[in-house]
Amino acid sequence: MKVKITVMYKKGVLDPQGKTILGSLHQLGYKEVTDVKAGKVLELSLSRMSKAQLEKKIKEMCEKLLANPIIEDYQLDVSE
Amino acid sequence: MKFGIVVFPGSNCEHDCYHVVKHVLRQDASFLWHKDTTLAGSECVILPGGFAHGDYLRCGAMAKFSPIMESVARFARDGGAVLGICNGFQILTEAGLLPGALIRNRSLHYLCQDVHLRVESTASPFTRSIPAGKVLKMPIGHGEGCYYADAKMLKRLEVEGRIAFRYCDAKGALDDEANPNGSLQSIAGILNERGNVLGLMPHPDRCAEAILGGEDGRFLFESVLGSSRRA
Questions:
Q1: Residue B114 sits in which domain range?
Q2: How confident is the model at residue B131 (pLDDT cuts 50, 70, 90)?
Q3: CATH number for the domain harbouring residue B134
Q4: Of the candidates A78, A79, A3, A75, which has an alpha carbon nearest to the alpha carbon of residue A39?
Q5: B225 in Cβ contact with B129 (< 8 Å)
Q6: Positive or negative CA dihedral for B63, B124, B104, B116?
Q7: Domain-embedded: residue B231
Q8: Looking at CA atoms only, how far is residue B150 from chain A in angstroms?
């Protein structure tokens, strides 16, 4: 099974990477872009288990290690 | 006094700390490997700068699970003096021994320069012998030193007198230009609730003797002498 975890800064946390990318896009003429947020994606491969079990495990991993709840939120995308 | 300096894979300032303790302060210093489970009788524990575990994922994220951190946490809970410098500060926040987090500098640049620091609290083993109102000059060297905590925690730190150092100009005035990395409220160093754990981004270990261009870092090490309990 595969899980894609997207980790993004919480709202209100300064994201200088996103701001810099936004500036570059504007420089390239893409004025329609109003905001950019930069984050990270982690892909985990796991042995087979029920979806509920998997989500419980991944959440645990995120709270413990993969994301820092003080500054980051995360989203899971599970596939077979 | 016996100082224990924790070495993680990727630490790179452990010898700076060792040198200050052993050759400048003439105290007992020993290295503690991150896989050790005891602090070998240390009366003060230092988490030095560097890139523990490669700083992968987030700075300090993996280091908090090193076996020695359980002993460090216990020592801190018992009131032992713990000093986290730069990466050591990042590790202390990840480990939950200090609140908040350190994120990318707002400029995105790795900064290597001298900064001025206003001493905001002298109520800690590391700051107690610093004259009130003193402005210290210390070097920084970091890419992720922007201090972040939510508004509630920032207020708490302020009210409880736990902000130890703020970035300031040479005269001690706070302004945005003197804040090198975008830290909220210009925070350069903070204390835990009890005041026995200090984390700061600037490097007192790199300015503890005149030959290195400054001695202000000595204040922190000298303050702690004789103040702590055995682990």
A1: 2-224
A2: confident
A3: 3.40.50.880
A4: A75
A5: no
A6: negative
A7: no
A8: 8
Nearest to B104 among A16, A65, A70 (CB): A16
Q: Do A16 and B57 touch (CB under 8 A)?
A: no
Listed by start position, the domains of chain A span 2-79
For position B133, what pLDDT does the model report?
Answer: 79
| Long-range contact set of residues A17-25: C-beta below 8 Å, sequence gap at least 24 | A17/B104, A17/B108, A20/B108
User: Does residue B32 fall inside a structural domain?
Assistant: yes
In-domain check, residue B46: yes
Q: A2-79 adopts what CATH topology?
A: Mth169; Chain: A , (3.30.1280)
Give the C-alpha separation, A14 to B182, whole Å: 9
Model confidence band, residue A80 (pLDDT cutoffs 50, 70, 90): confident
Residue B207, helix vs strand vs coil: coil
pLDDT tens track for B37-83: 999 999 999 999 999 999 999 999 999 999 999 999 999 999 999 99
The total number of structural domains in chain B stands at 1
Paired tokens of B134: 């003193």
Strand partners, A77: A4
Has residue B156 been placed in a domain?
yes
- Note whether A17 contacts B: Cβ–Cβ < 8 A: yes
Structure-block tokens of residue A46: 């796991």
Which among A21, A38, A46, A45 is positioned nearest to A72, based on CA atoms?
A: A38
CA atoms of B119 and B216, how far apart (whole Å): 12
Picking from B116, B134, B120, the residue whose alpha carbon sits closest to that of residue B175 is: B116
Interface predicted TM-score (ipTM)? 0.88
CB contacts, 8 Å: B58 with chain A: 68
A24 inside 8 A of chain B by CB: no
Q: Which residues partner with B187 through β-bridges?
A: B166
Q: Does any CB of chain B come closer than 8 Å to the CB of residue A13?
A: yes
Residue found by looking up tokens 């230009």 in the block: B177
